[in-house]
Design brief:
Length: 108
C-alpha cells in the first residue's frame, strides 16, 4: 500500500468527512512544484508536501501572483500517524481561509 493510501485509510478511520470528495491517489510524479501548487490552488486544497528543499521557495514565488490555500511541510522523518493527527487538528481547529498563502511545518 502506498503512503498516500495509508494516509487516506488512517484519515478515513478517524474522520470520514475530512476525505469525502478527495481523490484517493493523485499522480503528481514528473510535475514541478509550481504545477503541483497550481493544482492544489485550483481545487482549493491545502497542499501537504515532504519537500523541504524546493517547495517553500516555489511556494513563496507562487503566492506573489496566485492565491494558495496553504502549504504544510511534513518531513519524511515524521511518522504517518503524527502527520495525520496534525492535519486532523488543523482541520478541526481552523478554516480554509486562515490558511490562504500560509506555510507551516509539521509538527505544529
Amino acid at each position: 500500500m502506498t503512503s498516500t493510501k495509508r494516509f487516506f485509510a488512517r484519515c478515513g478511520r478517524l474522520n470520514r468527512q475530512l476525505i469525502s470528495g478527495l481523490p484517493m491517489e493523485l499522480d503528481l510524479h514528473g510535475l514541478d512544484d509550481l504545477a503541483v501548487l497550481e493544482l492544489a490552488a485550483l481545487e482549493k486544497r491545502i497542499l501537504v508536501s515532504s519537500d523541504q528543499s524546493t517547495m517553500p521557495l516555489h511556494f513563496a514565488e507562487f503566492i506573489q501572483i496566485n492565491t494558495s490555500y496553504g502549504l504544510l511541510i511534513a518531513p519524511q522523518s515524521l511518522s504517518l500517524n503524527i502527520v495525520v493527527d496534525e492535519i486532523l487538528i488543523i482541520w478541526a481547529a481552523s478554516t480554509l481561509e486562515e490558511w490562504i498563502n500560509r506555510i507551516a511545518y509539521l509538527p505544529l
